[in-house]
Write a structure and sequence with these properties.
Number of strands: 10
Helix content: 25-40%
Radius of gyration: 16 Å
Number of domains: 1
Strand content: 25-35%
GO molecular function: ATP binding
InterPro entries: DUF7504 (IPR055927), KaiC-like_dom (IPR014774), P-loop_NTPase (IPR027417)
Low-confidence stretches: none
Shape: globular
Largest sheet: 10 strands, mixed
Keywords: ATP-binding, Nucleotide-binding
Pfam families: ATPase, DUF7504
Protein name: ATPase
């Protein structure tokens, strides 16, 4: 394994413990507790440190990602040379958006095409300097368009691609979207299970649990 990975988010590393390339993280919680804010800041801080990043925008499109980052004064456009984006929802508005540079478009109901583009991006980013970071926000949206068992296979394939590239993955998921048996299976695909409830963030890895209070400020997530 390579050296430990720091998220760059104030206080979060103390909760997560020692992350290394190859670690896969699941971030869950009810709606409106800050999952997307954390996922976006996780990406931005990685880009700031020069890490190549893949962001799969399933809940919001690429333009929304740009607006969301600007709300916190995170100017992601200035770091876009190391950012690859797979935009899933934009095509739902009609038309067929064309891939441009490092931004690729797919569809929420076309998981085969999604995984082809994940493979292209991870292979490309693997060749760049630094630990690759990948964020999938959010896996729960896939369940609105695909059978649950298929979504589980997609998550496993996605995790395999990131791990093979020596990357670190963060996947968000909103609790209560799938049946209970499916939701019990999802955490088993990951090394670390992070939970947010609106006031406390916790992480379970190797059977050990750490937690701390958190808040969302105009600068992002502050933990502790």
């Amino acid at each position: 394994m390579s050296e430990n990975y720091s998220t760059g988010i104030a206080g979060l590393d103390a909760v997560l413990g020692e992350l290394e390339p190859g670690h896969l993280m699941l971030l869950t919680g009810p709606p409106k507790v800050g999952k997307t804010v954390l996922a976006t800041e996780f990406t931005y801080r990685a880009l700031q440190r020069g890490n190549p990043c893949l962001f799969i925008a399933a809940e919001y499109g690429y333009r929304d990602l740009q607006r969301n980052t600007m709300a916190f004064n995170w100017f992601i456009q200035s770091l876009a040379d190391k950012l690859h984006v797979i935009d899933l929802p934009t095509g739902l508005a009609g038309g067929k958006p064309q891939d441009s540079g490092n931004v690729r478009y797919s569809a929420l109901q076309n998981t085969t095409d999604l995984m082809v583009k994940v493979g292209i991006s991870t292979r490309s980013l693997y060749q760049e300097e630094g630990t690759m970071v990948s964020v999938f926000d959010s896996a729960s949206i896939l369940l609105a368009f695909n059978p649950p068992k298929l979504v589980l296979r997609v998550l496993k394939a996605y995790n395999d691609r990131v791990r093979d590239a020596g990357g670190i993955a963060l996947v968000t998921y909103t609790e209560g979207v799938a049946d209970e048996d499916i939701e019990e299976e999802i955490p088993g695909l990951f090394d670390v299970h992070i939970q947010m409830d609106g006031s406390v963030i916790s992480a379970v890895m190797d059977g050990e649990r750490m937690e701390a209070p958190y808040r969302i400020t105009d600068q992002g997530i502050t933990v502790g």
